[in-house]
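Title: Prediction job returns without error message
Component: structure pipeline
Severity: low
Priority: P3
Assignee: unassigned

Description:
Job completed but the reporter wants confirmation the result is attached to the right record. Sequence as submitted:
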Amino acid sequence: MTFINYFSLEHLLNLTLFGIVFLFWLLLNRWINKNLESYLKQKGWLVKGREKNIKKLIKQILLLVCSILALEALIIGHQEFSISNISHLELFGFDFEEKSNGTYERFSFTIGSVFYLLFVIIISKISISIFRVLIHRSTREKKWIDEGGRYTIIQLSKYVIYTIAIVVGIQGVGIDITFLLAGSAALFVGIGFGLQAILGDVFSGIILLFDGSIKVGDIVEMSLRSEQLNPQYKGYKEICKVDHIFIRTSQLKTLDGKTIIVPNSFLAKENIVNWTISDKITRFHISVTVAFGSDTQLVKELLYQCALKHPMVEKRRNIIIELEDFGEYGLKFNVYFWLQQTWEIISIKSDIRLAIDQAFRNNNIKIPFPQRDLHLVSDARKCN
């Protein structure tokens, strides 16, 4: 018997359909890799920073659909291998409750249960992605909520959807959720006592998301180093940007680019200065000292122009030049200005200082430095 004669017409049909499904998957997967991102951007459905996640989710959905189609292609025409029969194949099971007639209630985890759980997971991910896109699209056109509020709504919605998915998944595979909770009450109490710190972080995360005192994108000033471990850290403050607020921890980014992960209970308990909680525009100042005898009106004008010409300085707010004090070595001036790009404050201050230095050089204005005058007094008695 030849290899070709071994297969019947039904087998060839199965292989042909399987090949068509496989080819369809290859072509669609290639299109996703090349054109999906630009297509979603054109339609306005692409959420910035989530490109890889959206592409990965769509690929997972495509793989699941094509796997089901491929399986159907291989078993079509073979009634003994129908989807219905395969889905009822038991992977494992056990008897857990005796009935009045002497029989036992049996729990069976089948191949159909696996497909059901995969379906619930994918539907929950699709729901989160759709909700995220809708929130971003609605807030992009109408600025009714800021970045932090948008992140809070998305995170809370994600937790709600995942909770519903877990309950639906457990019920769907044949487990009574009420029976499970009642039977595990004592276990949950024991776990609660053992995980007090973790649960405290979780509840703190929920409070932060609802409270809104610290949101994603905020610039905060806080103490991240313990003075008990090292006395030199006393009074030391770190300026950070809130990148993410998760259910248990939060990610902060420092000015030097380091990512710090802190428990949410730390953010809820510590005294934190939030630079951007009420207004995204924050006032800063630069101190400058000039030599005694300098033309103060000229100094004020030069300082004003140097701050005004910087592109990041807010022109809608007043720039204030203040003579603070007569110092030990010269006249102390302060330049007060407003910024919206708070996170760039170090480089902006550096730019303004460089401009001030150049302006002072061009106008022969001196910046004093500490001096000591030494008077040598001779001893007259030794001279005689």
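Comment from assignee: result matches the submitted record. The first strand starts at residue 90 and ends at 98.
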